[in-house]
Amino acid sequence: MVSPELSQFQTSPMAKHSSRSKAASFLSDGFLFVGGATVALLVVWALWSFINPSLSSNPSFSTTVGDPKTIISSESEDCAQGSDDRSDPTFYDDPKLSYSIGQTIKNWDEKRREWLNHHPSFAAGAGDRILVVTGSQPSPCKNPIGDHLLLRFFKNKVDYCRIHGYDIFYNNVLLHPKMHSYWAKLPVVRAAMVAHPEAEWIWWVDSDAAFTDMDFKLPLERYRDHNLVIHGWAHLIYEKKSWTGLNAGVFLIRNCQWSLDFMEVWASMGPQTPNYDKWGQTLRSTFKDKIFPESDDQTGLAYLILKGKGKWADKIYLEGEYYFEGYWSEIVGTLDNITDKYVGIEKGERRLRRRHAEKVSERYSALREPYLKEAGSGSGSWRRPFITHFTGCQPCSGDHNQMYAGESCWDGMQRALNFADNQVLRNYGFVHTDLLDSSSVSPLPFDFPA
Amino acid sequence: MVSPELSQFQTSPMAKHSSRSKAASFLSDGFLFVGGATVALLVVWALWSFINPSLSSNPSFSTTVGDPKTIISSESEDCAQGSDDRSDPTFYDDPKLSYSIGQTIKNWDEKRREWLNHHPSFAAGAGDRILVVTGSQPSPCKNPIGDHLLLRFFKNKVDYCRIHGYDIFYNNVLLHPKMHSYWAKLPVVRAAMVAHPEAEWIWWVDSDAAFTDMDFKLPLERYRDHNLVIHGWAHLIYEKKSWTGLNAGVFLIRNCQWSLDFMEVWASMGPQTPNYDKWGQTLRSTFKDKIFPESDDQTGLAYLILKGKGKWADKIYLEGEYYFEGYWSEIVGTLDNITDKYVGIEKGERRLRRRHAEKVSERYSALREPYLKEAGSGSGSWRRPFITHFTGCQPCSGDHNQMYAGESCWDGMQRALNFADNQVLRNYGFVHTDLLDSSSVSPLPFDFPA
Question: Which domains does chain B have, with CATH numbers?
Answer without folding.
Answer: 91-320 (3.90.550), 329-430 (no CATH)
